[in-house]
Amino acid sequence: MTIKDFIFTALLVFIPISLLAHILHWGSLVVFITSGLAILPLAAWMGTATEEIAVVLGPSLGGFLNATFGNATELIIAVIALKSGLVNVVKASITGSIISNLLLVMGLSMLLGGIRYREQEFQSTVARVNASSMNLAVIAILLPTAVNFTSTGIDEKTLQLLSIAVAVVLILVYGLTLLFSMKTHSYLYDTGLAELEPAELAEVNLAPDNDDPEEKVNLRLWVAVLLGATLLVAIESELLVETLEVATARLGLTELFTGVILLPIVGNAAEHATAVSVAMKNKMDLSVSVAVGSSLQIALFVAPVLVITGWFLGQPMDLNFNPFELVAVAVAVLIANSISSDGRSNWLEGTLLLAAYAVLGLAFYFHPVIQDIG
Q1: Contact (CB, 8 A) for 335 and 345
Q2: Is residue 93 scored above 60 in pLDDT?
Q3: Chain-centre distance of CA 132, in angstroms?
Q4: Residue 56 half-sphere exposure toward CB, CA atoms < 13 A
Q5: What is the pLDDT of residue 269?
Q6: Helix, strand, or coil here: 319?
Q7: How far apart are CA 70 and CA 324, in angstroms?
Q8: Is 112 exposed, middle or buried (0-12, 13-18, 19+ CB in 10 A)?
Q9: Is 92:258 a contact under the CB 8 Å cutoff?
C-alpha cells in the first residue's frame, strides 16, 4: 500500500464521525471540517471504481467514462450548493478549480518531479492543443461578464439565455476534444505509454484493454462501489454545503475564498495526489495530462452543465463572474501556457506556478478588504 492509499484509507474514519457530528449536533464547524475530510477518500474510491469499470468497457467507452466522471465529486458538491442558492460559491469553485489545477497541481508536480530529476519532458504538441482549448474556454466564460459590464440595463433573463447558449457551444467543443483525443488523434496522447506498468496506467485512468477483462475485474462489485461512493459523496456534500456559511464565517473566510481555494482542494484531492505521484516517477506527460485535462473538463463541461442545471432548478446561474475571478483565471492560463509550451519542466518552473497560486490565494483572501477600501 502506497502512502497515498494509506492516507485515503485512514480518512474513511471521518465518514461516521461527520454523520455523528450532524446527528448529535456537535456544531457547524465540526460538521463542515469532518464532512470535507470524509469526501477526500470517497472521491478516491470513485476514481478507482471508474478505472476498474473502464477496463471492462474498453478504451473508447472507458475513456468516455473517465472523462465524464473525472470531476464527478466536484460536480455533486456544486449542484447541491446551487440547489441551496449558493450561486456565488458555485461560480467561485469553477474558477478555483481551473486555477488550482493549472497552478497548484502542475506546480507541485513540476517542483517535486524536478527535485528528483534535473529536467522532465512531455508532449509539447498536446500542450499546445490543450492551451488553445483553454484559451477558447476562457474567452467564452469572459464574454457574458463583458456583455454585462459594457451594457446598461441588461436584464438577468437575457444574461442567463446568453450563458445557456455559450454553455451549449462549450459542451459541443468538449465533445470534439474527446473525439480528437480518443479517436482521430489518439496517437498524440499514447506517446510514452508503452513503457508504463499497468499499475501506473491505472493511476491516471489509462488502464490497458485486456483480452478477457471480465475474468480480472468484478464489474458488479465496482459498479456497486461507484454507486455507493457517489451516494455517500452526495450525503457528505449536503452536510458540507449545509454548514458552509456558518462554518466559514466562524473561520473568518468569505464565500469567494471558500469557493476558489477550499472547495476545489476538497473535490479534486485524489486527482491532485495522482498527478503529483506520477510526476515523481518521471511520467510528466501523464501528470500534465491529468492537471490540464481536469481544467479543460471544468471549463468545457462542468461549468456549462451547472449553467443548464441552474436553469432547470430555477437558480440564476449564469457565466457572469466576479471580474477579479476572470483576471485570476486569465493569469493562471497565461503563465501555465507559457511554462508548458516548450514541453520541458524543472523545479524552478514548478516554483513559479506555486508562487502565482500563493499570490492569487492571498489576493482572494484579502479581496473583501481591498473592495471596502476602494
Answers
A1: no
A2: yes
A3: 19
A4: 14
A5: 78
A6: coil
A7: 27
A8: middle
A9: yes
The grid coordinates of residue 360 equal 492569487
Q: Which three cell numbers stand for residue 199?
A: 499499475
Mean local confidence (pLDDT), 71-84: 87
| DSSP H stretches of helix in the chain | 3-10, 14-23, 28-57, 59-69, 72-83, 87-99, 106-116, 124-150, 156-179, 186-190, 198-203, 219-242, 244-251, 255-257, 263-279, 284-297, 303-313, 323-340, 347-373
pLDDT tops 80 at residue 34 = yes
Angle of CA points 336, 338, 343, to nearest 5°: 90
Q: What is the pLDDT of residue 145?
A: 86
Task: Give pLDDT, residue 190.
Answer: 62
Query: Model pTM?
Result: 0.83
pLDDT of residue 239: 92
Q: Which residues contact 110 (CB under 8 A, 6 or more apart)?
A: 120, 279, 284, 339, 345, 346, 347, 349, 350, 353
Q: Are the C-beta atoms of residues 71 and 268 closer than 8 Å to each other?
A: yes
How far is residue 33's CA from residue 204's CA, in Å, rounded to a whole number?
28
Stretch 90-104: mean pLDDT, rounded?
91
371, pLDDT greater than 70: no
User: Do 2 and 202 contact (CB within 8 A), yes or no?
Assistant: no
Q: What CA–CA distances, in Å, run from 316 to 38, 192, 197, 237?
A: 30, 45, 47, 21
Tell me which H or E stretch contains 121.
strand 120-121
Please tell me the predicted confidence (pLDDT) of residue 66: 66
> Could you give the 3-state DSSP secondary structure of residue 120?
strand
> 48, 41 in Cβ contact below 8 A?
no
Q: Are 79 and 309 in contact (CB under 8 A)?
A: yes
Q: Which position has the grid cell 473592495? A: 371
* Average pLDDT value for the chain: 82
pLDDT of residue 1: 64
